[in-house]
Amino acid sequence: MFVSGSDEHGTPIEVEAIKRGVHPKTLTDEVHAMVVELFKKFWLSFDNYTRTHNDVHIEFCREFFLKIYEKGFIFAREVDQLFCENCKRFLPDRFVTGTCPRCGYPSARGDQCENCGIVLEPLELLDSRCSICGSKPVVKKTKHWYFDLPRFSEKLREMILKNDRLPENARNFSLSWINEGLRPRAVTRDNQWGIPAPFPGAEGKTIYVWFEAVIGYVTATIEWAMRRGSHELWKKYWLDPETKSVYFIGKDNIPFHTIILPALIMAYDDRFVLPWNVSSTEYLMFEGQKFSKSRGVGIWLDQALEYFPADYWRYYLVKIRPEKSDANFSWEDFQKTINNDLNDNIGNFVHRVLTFIHNHFNGEVPAPEGFDELDNKLLSITKSAPLEAANHMEELKMRQALETLTELSSQGNVYLTRKEPWHTLKTEPSQARTTLYVAAQVVKCLSILLDPFIPESALKMRDMLAIEIPKGDAWLSSGEQLLEPGHRIKRPRPLFEKIPDKKIAELKNR
Q: How far apart are CA 4 and CA 265, in angstroms?
């Protein structure tokens, strides 16, 4: 089950909508539709990609937080907050800008400084001003509702210490938070765009977006089940202790998935499954700089597809996935990887094999006539590659899984070079038939194993092979369910194109 959704609520959306003079939902409708379309173009296969401004999510969240409140885990507290007398509103999070108290950055936001990364509260900013009108705010008293996070400190510590699957950054960051002492966290905000807080006396307040957004994993599953006519099917994923729930995030979102979400689940219903793993990557840099929307540093998804096919991006971003340390995108390395790995290795191997079969064996997989040591070795590698890659995937090591498959293709190229079927076809035709039979099995295996990584290209490979992904455990059996002699393939065509230097120079100048 693969779910996620557009995180639609919160101050950034509301501030932007006010500046544009539109309702927040008008803005999120537009952006959500664009995101859904882009994900389709990138061949992302969500079981349910939803949005947080929907009835299922809103109703479940109100019931969820009210139950936690009634169990005594949420309490009210009077606090000081910035208020804009010109706009007649309290100023949470992004409604405030000012100078960072740590680094002096003059355009820090009320929730975080983009320059040094420190997490902030609006009252901590120096020279604060309203993001909407620019006037200086005053301090006023208001009431907010807080989640009693410290009550879950020891349960969270135990959960983290027992989970040896957690990446080092997730484990260390989470334990550091706990060791420093967890504080009650505000569940409510004073902005209008969000889920109305369900607590008695909380009229006009909304639930803080980061508290309700993480519950979206549950509601996305509920919504998926309802679409299939079952109001109970979602429980298979959230109440079955055999479930493995995995979260794929950047390291800046670690505490929301290792501290906030588990604590909320513990408070609501201890039968719910806790995170089995949190795949928290390090940072991806862009040509040595931090990605920045405001400074225009980086490539946006819609631009990326104007430059190159989705599979080029998918392959490269998995290849440099920052699983243990920060990774750096560079145009030269992107070009080198696509040209060497996709074109010269995988694309070249597939095209050599299928073209030879098409041209010299009437488009039919030839029958083997006895296997020698090289044949058996490659068949053995092909048979073991699925399990090896699957083990890496199970450990969420996508890079290593992909490297296993790239190596399989490399072994195929080495095999062809050593067997020289273009020569043996004339001198020992039986050996050439065996060579192409073995090589075809490698192509067939790759066409299935590469599907999660470069799905469009893998589909093209299967189309040329005239096969579909078989039913059952296609991944693990892909090296064993062999193409039968006599199986007819279609006319082959190149899968990839080399990226010329001129194209990279042009993109670097943009």
A: 18
